[in-house]
Amino acid sequence: MGHSQHTAKSSPTASGCRRAGPRICLRKGCGCVFTTSRWNQRYCGNPECQRLVRRWQAAKRQRRRRQNEEHRQQHAQAQRERRQRCREATSASENHEPLPVEKECSPETTAEDGGAWSRRKNAPADFCDRPGCYDPVRASSRTNARYCGDDCRRAVRRVLDRERKWLKRKTYAGRFKRRLEYRQARSRVGSQQNREVRPGSADVAESVGNYSSTSDARLSYRGNKERPP
Q1: What's the rounded Cα separation, in Å, for the pair 199 and 10?
Q2: What spatial distance separates the first Cα and last Cα of the chain, rounded to whole Å?
Q3: Which segments of 95-171 does DSSP mark as H helices, in order?
Q4: Do the bridges between strand 33-35 and strand 22-24 make them parallel or antiparallel, or are there none, so unpaired?
Q5: What's the pTM value of the predicted model, to 2 decimals?
Q6: Residue 43 and residue 33: Cα distance in Å, rounded?
Q7: Mean pLDDT, consecutive 10-residue segments, the chain of 229 residues?
C-alpha cells in the first residue's frame, strides 16, 4: 500500500497564505481602517472613496499624456475636426438642412474668433503622486520632487515597501534577507542592554598612557573627560 493521500482542502495557514491585517486607506483625506481581502489592496471599499481615486488617476493620466508632443498634436487635430463638425452643423441648421452630428455642439466649445478653446487655465499644476492629493509638489534643487511633503512620501513608500516584502517572502533571497534583518535587530537590542554605566566610574580619575622610554609611564589627564561624538 502506498502513502495515505489527504484529499481534504488545506487551510490558508497550511498552504502558506495568510490574511493580512488591518490597513489604513492610502487616499489622502480618507483615513479609513479596513480589513483587506487581498495582499495588494490599497484602498477601502467605500464607493465614494473609489470614485475619488479614479478621478485622481484620470487627472494624473491626462497630465502625463499632455506632456508628450505627439499626444498633444493628436489632441489638437481631434479638436480641429470637432470644431469643423460644429461649424457644419451650425450652417446646416441655419439653412434648414438636417445633417447628422455625432455630438451636439454648444457655444462654449467654439471660440467667437474661430480659435481653439482650451482648458489650460483650469488644468491643475504638477501635483502630488499620492492618490487623492492635488497639492503642488515641493521645490527641489537636486531632483524632480514627486510629493508635496514628507507625510505623503512616507505613506506611499510604506505601502510600496510592504508590497515588496510580501512578494519577497516566498523566495529564498527574501527569506535570507529577512533573517539578516532579524539578526541585526537582535544585536542592536543586545548592544543597548550592555551599554550600561558602571557604578562609581565617573569618580575614578582618568589618565592617558605614555609610550615614551621615560620611567614615568602615565600622564595626567588634567581632569578632562572624554566626550563621545
Answers
A1: 58
A2: 72
A3: 150-168
A4: antiparallel
A5: 0.56
A6: 9
A7: 46 50 90 88 92 92 84 87 89 66 48 49 73 88 85 93 87 86 87 64 50 57 62
